Amino acid sequence: REPDPEALLAGLNPQQRDAVVHTGSPLLVVAGAGSGKTRVLTHRIAYLLAGGVHPGQVMAITFTNKAAAEMKERVAELVGRRAGAMWVSTFHSMCVRVLRREAKVLGLSSNFSIYDADDSRRLITMVAREQDLDSKRYPARTLAVHISNLKNELLTPEEAAERAGDDMERKVAQVYAAYQRRLVESNSMDFDDLIMRTVELLQNHPAVAEHYRRRFRHVLVDEYQDTNHAQYVLVRELVGTEATESGVEPAELCVVGDADQSIYAFRGATIRNIEEFERDYPAARTILLEQNYRSTQTILSAANAVIRRNPNRRDKRLWSDAGDGDPIVGYVADNEHDEAAFVAGEIDRLVDSGEATFNDVAVFYRTNNQSRVFEEVFIRLGLPYRVVGGVRFYERREVRDALAYLRVLDNPDDTVSLRRILNVPKRGIGDRAEAVVAVHAEQERISFAQALRDAAEGRVSLLNTRARNAISGFVALLDELHEVAAKSDVAETLEQVLERTGYRAELEASDDPQDATRVENLTELVTVAREFTEARAGAPATRGEGDPSAEAVVGAAVPAAEDDEETALGLPADDSLSAFLERVSLVADADSLPESGDGVVTLMTLHTAKGLEFPVVFCTGWEDGVFPHMRALGEPAELAEERRLAYVGITRARQRLYLSRALTRSAWGQPMTNPASRFLTEIPEELMDWRRVEPERSAPQVRSTWGSRGGLDRTGSDSAQAGVAARGMRSTGAKGWKDTVALKLSAGDKVTHDKYGLGTVLSTEGEGPRATATIDFGSAGTVRLMLIGSVPMTKL
Ligand code: ATP
Ligand code: MG
């Protein structure tokens, strides 16, 4: 099927069309939400293919695997089965694919394990313990964040050591070096390594880089505002900036993004990559899109009113011809249960009246834990729903245990997984025995797996007979399972693991109802494995390397025989265990989005909602301290990021938008009184239809100190002096507020507050400028106070 190039352009506006047909220089499409950036990418690919580009020459990068699958599907609708040979994936999946192919060059074995955040933290904990670091002063979590940041900046342990300026940085560099060595010994990579090692590969092996450059003549990146430095360099290495020695010209690059939707700064994303695109690629062309096709004008106006207040941004003129539509519905609930009941009631009403289906509706919140109340209410009312993300299936203990067995079978050097299952289920290999084996491994410079074998054969002196026997039994069990794995598919191997290790039997014998759920989850995992095997059996077999030969590709028509569809992961067909493990390692929150047709309401965090759209959107929990997140109050950079998140949330809505907040909400087991989110107060009143406002109160209002204004008093602006000071920023000259005075409190302390009177500190959270205390002021209520700024309170 050859699509007509003109037909592909028919549904596009002139700017979109320019972007689709542009050739000859790097292209940046910058535009606000819903202006068709993703659509441009899809149409551009289809247009290229219609013009004779071979699908094998196209690489597109999306933010989630789900988005990748959708894009592939949409292109397939436009050009047919040929779409199969394109590489459409996330950065991480793309890198795994390259690294597995090129493992030899890097001296790796191609069945390396992929460590997620939890695995990587475990390994860091082990390393930090070996280095006798105080886990209070140097928590594994903090070390992990620092190491990840270094990798996102493509800094090696040696470079990190050279740059280290303070004690923490020196310790981080030291742990990073040992951690990296352990990863290599375990034949494993963490998520950041996937990117960093691919960059290294391309930079240090020009022949390999040239091979990919020849192959991928078109590279397209969606959501470019959320790329970090490592990803930026990766893209640059892939496409190249000048011709190679043998004359391969740079590939064509097209990136699309919106600086106002950059919401992953905490993972190192930087809008610099968008802002400096023209400097990075001097010949670049930039195209702006201004028409929004997603939302009503009312929704857009609200989004603009909020994002406008961010400093240092380029203002965009985004317009819609969808008409004003309905006003935004506002609701002030008494508490979070009342809020959930309102949301559920509205959904019910919309569905009953035929105005919407369950599928049309999404409910957003700031943090995952906020989903619980919605779930309770939805279950009680029988509303079908699905939570995206949250405590993810693959993060559950039993699922991780089972996968650890599979990983050890796939990659015996995977130390983190091996140590995870060493005594799970309990088999008499205690912490001491584990430590003895670990020391032996260090001393002999052998893998933990090898050290276990030594122990089983009596070559480790410090072990008693019981421990030695237990280890022998475990080694024999693994050998047995290895044989099973060699002749079974993944599902069968998993069944045998659960059976022969006694893992399932132990759960089944337990009285704990949670263990019954665990058994169900394991059954579900077996089902996932079975479906995986079936899907692979249905897919055409991989044909060797799969790359069309370079000569055939460059500028020439490619013979039909080269038009192969590879298995999604670029692995040989018999390597199903690796492929399965890779699939489950790279699942992201958004990948579990319900299929349309499921007839369910979708619940998710604002972060997960990026790139999506729904006819009806409920943005909930718009309270200062909840959203914007407490962490961001008084931190201008973080507040700007929260504001972009608000912009993302609002612009997901096509026709109807609801914004709600609760006057009180439980946090840390205590009801907290929260003021209206500043974002809520920034939306012009004429766009809103308040269904319920804050009730008048006769008693003095109990408020957090940073929220000195009432919920519906929308005269206060973000920059009002008192407001700023109250939010804990340094403020000179604002009346009534002095410079930062930190008040040191701990649970149990008695205090007296100018306004609330006597109180008892229930708990404290955070440190420095983020320190807060939850204080019970008796009849005046329980209040969460920021302990910065001049708090009108004295410790007794
Ligand atoms: P986001 O910034 O949220 O990622 P986006 O810029 O990628 O948004 P798309 O998701 O591509 O925007 O498009 C938003 C909606 O507008 C989609 O439903 C898309 O099909 C529709 N759309 C885009 N361009 C056009 C057009 N020219 N004609 C009709 N509909 C369009
Ligand atoms: Mg998009």
Briefly say what this structure is.
Keywords: ATP-binding, DNA-binding, Helicase, Hydrolase, Isomerase, Nucleotide-binding. Helix 29 (about 635-650) links the parallel strand 13 (about 615-620) and strand 14 (about 655-660).
Question: What would you note in describing this structure?
Answer:
By secondary structure, the protein is α/β, with parallel strands linked by helices. It has five domains: 5-103 and 194-290, 3-Layer(aba) Sandwich (Rossmann fold), CATH 3.40.50.300; 113-186, Orthogonal Bundle (Arc Repressor Mutant, subunit A); 292-392 and 587-695, P-loop containing nucleotide triphosphate hydrolases (Rossmann fold, 3-Layer(aba) Sandwich), CATH 3.40.50.300; 394-533, PCRA, domain 4 (Orthogonal Bundle), CATH 1.10.486; 702-796, no CATH class. The protein has 31 helices and 22 strands. It has a seven-stranded parallel sheet with strand order 11-12-10-13-14-9-17. The chain has a six-stranded parallel sheet with strand order 3-2-6-7-1-8, with helices on both faces. A five-stranded antiparallel sheet has the order 21-20-19-18-22, with no helix packed on it. Strand 6 (218-221), helix 13 (229-239) and strand 7 form a beta-alpha-beta unit. Helix 19 (397-410) packs across helix 24. The longest helix is centred in the middle third of the chain and has 26 residues, at 513-538. The protein is globular, with a radius of gyration of 28 Å. Mean pLDDT is 84; it is low at 540-573 and 698-742. Magnesium ion binds at residues 37-38, 611.
